[in-house]
Write a structure and sequence with these properties.
The complex is a heterodimer of chains A (294) and B (326). Chain A has a domain at 12-120 and 131-219. Chain A contains eleven helices and two strands; from the N terminus they run ααααββααααααα. Chain A has 294 residues and is mostly helical. The termini of chain B are far apart. With 326 residues, chain B is mostly helical. Classes of the chains: A mainly alpha (294), B mainly alpha (326).
Chain lengths: 294, 326
């Protein structure tokens, strides 16, 4: 493998990683703050894609579609958290019921998408301004991939600023540490949980719109992506925002280079990475919590 | 303790599944009933882990599918004469595999255990897809022959499955009511106290995991013979989800709940599937209703009311490692 292939493959892996990061950071935020493992996150990814598709049909503008896709997915997320998920917090065997409820929403949302938009393949074209490709040295990279990497980069910076530097971010971090204490101090914790759920699902929707021009739009797309982002969250450590970034980078590159070396087994490779991480450091690479039995 | 009440579920079980033969509703419904009875074994086996021991495995499709693949591939490689043996081998193969997977996954608790079981199941699913020459990949394996004695009408195979499933469910029932079953039940309620008594939680969980996987494998092997075909979907995560659905809808705190759950889920797919292709939407709605209103399942409605405020429920909330946030 010469250096040019390496760079091209690395950049392609980076853009996959950024998409994975957008989804899995939402997953990990929900887990950290709301303490729910949202198996239905892929459905919000799917909703984002189809909302954007609908807007593109009406207005033929990618940027409006991007906005509506993200916000629409976020609103649906907040509705689901507020009316349904909230009712099972703190129940015995909560984990199993979360699993079931989010599984039910996968079935419901995916079938609604099928019902409304049909099962045939749809396409969302790249916006005209991002059509071409850039030359970096001798390597040609599609502009759109660079665009995804830049968006991901801005989301990282923005999230860092929000979580570390604002009061609201402080409350979010506090609620993942001690929900009861934060409530006693006068913060509206349920509202924070709903908002975090909304923001996280909106990020999933954003990823759905961003990924759409690179892949075909089908009702099965959400499920394919959710498993990879689950792996990302597990590798990075549940509830750990920076872990999601690290995990996304690892899995993005593993997928990208895996296809070169072992085209047959690239998808299997990610599971192997996850199993190795879980056996060596079960709580994830960046988590401090001990999860292994003593 | 031989009260008639203890055996009432068994009586209903026999009345329903054998009564169906007496009515003889036609081959389509006998086929449906065969599916219900095979899923029943899968769900009851899964519930030993889920409802009794309190371990939420999201990878049981692995053992179900492995059982099916072992049976199917052995029949394909040799002759169908030894079909019964191959089903047992499918169960043993699943048990063998589950021992090693259990050794690794049971080191983790709560959601981490769930994720790791999912990862292993997805790994095997991915391999099955890719190893086209060995497993048939996407196409699965078709035309799995049955021994001469079982060919012909679907009723024969129904009776065959009924006998095997009944024997397996009886074994599981005895396990559930044995001292070992009591240990598993207490592990769910309070693993710390069980450790203090001097019982090894990890070892007993591993035993439950292997037993559960073994019978899931038998169920998978039976399914391979029903339609004579198997496909990688049997290893995919919705199949694992179905086990959780069946156990919860029926009532995970009861022994026969999963059987009822299997009947409801399969029946629902059948009835709704007739009117609309969007049947999974309705399954989702039913699951939502069950989760919100009947968290103990159909058979657990009465139990839930009674146990609403008693102590057992309280200790479960406090001591369940799955939802502790530490």
């Amino acid at each position: 493998m010469d250096i040019n292939t390496f760079i091209a493959q690395f950049i392609s892996g980076l853009s996959t990683a950024m998409l994975l990061f957008l989804i899995s950071s939402g997953l990990t935020l929900i887990f950290g703050v709301v303490n729910v493992l949202n198996f239905a996150h892929g459905s919000f990814y799917l909703l984002g894609t189809y909302f954007a598709y609908q807007i593109m049909q009406l207005f033929n503008n990618f940027w409006v579609g991007l906005l509506v896709g993200a916000i629409g997915a976020g609103i649906v997320g907040m509705v689901i958290e507020f009316f349904f998920l909230r009712r099972i917090y703190g129940r015995a065997q909560e984990g199993a019921f979360q699993l079931l409820m989010t599984f039910a929403f996968i079935l419901i949302l995916d079938d609604m998408v099928k019902y409304i938009w049909g099962t045939e393949y749809k396409t969302i074209p790249k916006p005209a301004s991002l059509m071409g490709s850039l030359n970096i040295g001798a390597v040609t990279v599609p502009t759109y991939n660079i665009f995804i990497i830049i968006v991901g980069f801005f989301v990282v910076i923005f999230a860092w600023y929000f979580l570390m530097k604002t009061d609201m971010g402080k409350q979010v971090r506090a609620s993942s540490l001690d929900r009861l204490m934060l409530g006693l101090l006068g913060t509206n914790v349920p509202m924070i949980m709903t908002l975090v759920f909304g923001v996280a699902t909106a990020m999933g929707g954003l990823a759905g719109v961003l990924a759409a021009p690179l892949r075909t739009v089908t009702p099965g797309a959400g499920v394919e992506f959710i498993i990879d982002s689950m792996i990302v969250v597990v590798i990075g450590g549940f509830g750990n925002f920076w872990g999601a970034l690290l995990g996304a980078l690892i899995i993005g590159e593993v997928l990208s280079f895996g296809i070169l070396w072992m085209p047959e087994l690239a998808t299997v490779l990610t599971f192997i990475v996850m199993i190795i991480v879980l056996i060596v450091k079960p709580e994830g690479l960046l988590a401090k919590k001990a999860t292994v039995r003593k | 303790m031989k009260k008639i009440k203890d055996y009432l579920p068994w009586i209903l079980y026999f009345v329903f599944f054998l009564g169906l033969l007496a009515i003889n509703p036609g081959s389509h419904y006998i086929h449906l009933a065969s599916r219900i009875i095979i899923y029943s074994l899968y769900a009851v086996a899964f519930n030993l882990l889920y409802g009794t021991t309190g371990l939420v495995s999201f990878g049981h499709a692995l053992f179900y599918g492995i059982g099916a693949y072992i049976t199917g591939m052995l029949v394909k490689a040799t002759s169908p004469e030894w079909f019964l043996l191959y089903i047992l081998l499918g169960g043993l193969g699943a048990a063998f595999l589950s021992f090693f997977i259990g050794l690794l996954t049971l080191r983790l608790t709560g959601i981490y255990f769930t994720m790791l079981t999912l990862a292993f199941a997805q790994l095997v699913w991915g391999l099955t897809f890719k190893l086209y020459n060995f497993t048939g990949g996407d196409d699965g394996i078709q035309a799995i022959a049955k021994p001469a004695i079982l060919t012909g009408g679907v009723t024969k195979y129904y009776l065959f499955s009924f006998i095997i499933v009944t024997v397996c469910i009886y074994i599981l029932w005895r396990i559930r009511r044995s001292p070992f079953g009591a240990v598993l039940n207490s592990i769910r309620q309070n693993p710390q106290r069980i450790t203090f008594i001097g019982i090894n939680v990890y070892r007993n969980q591993l035993k439950a995991f292997v037993i559960s996987a073994c019978f899931s494998g038998v169920a998978g092997g039976l399914y391979a013979g029903l339609d004579g075909s198997i496909h990688p979907d049997m290893l995919h995560w919705p199949t694992s989800g179905n086990a959780i659905l069946m156990a919860t809808i029926g009532g995970m705190g009861t022994f026969f709940g999963p059987v009822v759950g299997a009947g409801i889920l399969t029946g629902l797919e059948e009835i709704v599937g007739k009117y609309t292709e969007y049947w999974s939407f309705y399954i989702g709605v039913v699951v939502l209703i069950v989760v919100l209103l009947f968290p103990n399942g159909v058979l657990g409605i009465k139990k839930f009311r009674r146990a609403n405020n008693n102590e057992e429920k309280e200790t479960e909330v406090v001591c369940n490692p799955g939802n502790q946030k530490s």
